[in-house]
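Example 9 (inverse folding). The structure is encoded as follows.
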């Protein structure tokens, strides 16, 4: 149960991390904002957006790595289910004798079938 919950959390954290990395502006974008390109009209203020986004990305990255390590540890400790293709040397059981298929006629040494 905990394994499935961690997998779902791992997926959500990964998607959020991808989203936050794509939303962030590059370091070169600060130069344009300082010359009046609308940097003061952001939701978090002129410098609050960078701090919030950077901190959130760091927290999500830390969660991503911690969940990765926990899932790796849980996967290594799981008991492996037996694989039905693992041992192919075991013969398949023969068909039952009471089938509807007629027996083939016996051949003699000359290769001719008796009439």
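The amino acid assigned to each position is listed next.
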């Amino acid at each position: 149960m905990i394994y499935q919950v961690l997998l779902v959390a791992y997926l959500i954290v990964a998607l959020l991390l991808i989203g936050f990395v794509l939303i962030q502006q590059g370091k070169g974008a600060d130069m344009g904002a300082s010359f009046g390109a609308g940097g003061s009209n952001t939701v978090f203020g002129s410098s609050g957006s960078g701090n919030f986004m950077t901190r959130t990305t760091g927290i999500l990255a830390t969660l991503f790595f911690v969940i990765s390590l926990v899932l790796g540890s849980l996967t290594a400790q799981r008991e492996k289910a037996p694989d039905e293709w693992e041992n192919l040397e075991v013969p398949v059981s023969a068909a039952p004798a009471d089938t509807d298929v007629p027996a083939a006629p016996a051949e003699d040494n000359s290769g001719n079938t008796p009439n």
